[in-house]
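User: Structure please.
Assistant: Input sequence and predicted structure:
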Amino acid sequence: MASRASAVLLAWAALASLACPRGEGERPPAAVGERVAPLVVPPAEIRAGGALAIAAVFPTMGRYAVSGVQSLQGARIAVEELNANGGVNGRPLRLAAYRMGSYFVDAREAAAQAIRAGALAIVGANSSELSQAVAEEAEANGILQVTNVSTAADLTWEPQSSRTRPFVFRMCATDDVMGDLLAGFARDRLHARRVAVLYEVGRPYSQRLARSFVARFSDDVAGHAVAKFSYLTLETDFRPQLELIRKFRPDVLFVPGSFQDATLVSAQAVQVGLHVTMLGGDAWSSPLLFQRGGPPGEAYYVELCSPTPEFDRRYEATVGEEPPGCRAVLAYDAVRVIVAGLRSLGPLSDDALDSGLAETRRRLRDAVARNRVDGATGRIRFDVHGDRRQGVALYSVEKTPVGPPRALVRGWLGEP
């Protein structure tokens, strides 16, 4: 078994720099009773030359790899810019990229390796599932974690028990905030009275958005009606649910799923004669949204930020690809938040990075909690739970005479 695990790890190491589409590149299922070995490719010595090491824990293999690589690129741009301007308090920065798979054991092992190697902080991960695994290690070892696009509310704290994770911070709004703001938008600006919700069973992201949306939309308001409908993962024929939704006669259809699901729902809604305004969350953010035809009516979705043209140009010039929405720029800002905290500590001695590392990590966490930073996505400040105090950008989907619809920023929901 050991030789088999070694062979699998070596094969994955050879692919570590490649991003795989969803569903490809996953490890084969383990046999009954077989331990799944973490897939982690660590960097070389992360503190060479007296560098201040920030560990980047993002998947570069498996289902979350596309988002992970984009996030890693954003963090890398931030470090390269900061080093070009002299580093931090006389020391260079080192972005220690732990390339890994898209499974929680990979994220946990990568975080543990980074902590043992002497990282001052961790940026990542992108998926809430992976960030939860990193957070367990960060909290247990007293090291700062800043995630860019993980939206699960219970990552930084548990609302029911008020349990907090003081070392875990988030650069974006939560699913609960997004659902609440979208429901307020449907009620107050679209003047909707009847709403249908079509969500994916078994996907926590979709379920959380649906739950918070329904709670806000139907909260003590007479005459408002909500009907919930569901579908299974990988389901592609939504016409049975859409027929029922058409009979419900909603003003708005909320689809808190992926852009692929929203695209299919849109095309099939037209087929069954359902003409309705559609709403979605940040998972709609993709150039491929509605590529099979425009929505059956107006369509809106929210994003976790509103990227500036300046950063988009920088990303395209550096990476040679189209800017990927919020993943890269929020990772970029996450690094800048950590660096602002390091700067406020003043010059760090070798002892502060060795025997005094635990105390330095704690001081860095406290500095990040109290600092206010002007980032590429606006002003950054955190609440008592470590969540960024910020709303979401509102996009509308506009039909075009020729070609697919395009998404345009229309404003901001919640606190900018």
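Confidence is low (pLDDT under 50) at residues 1-25.
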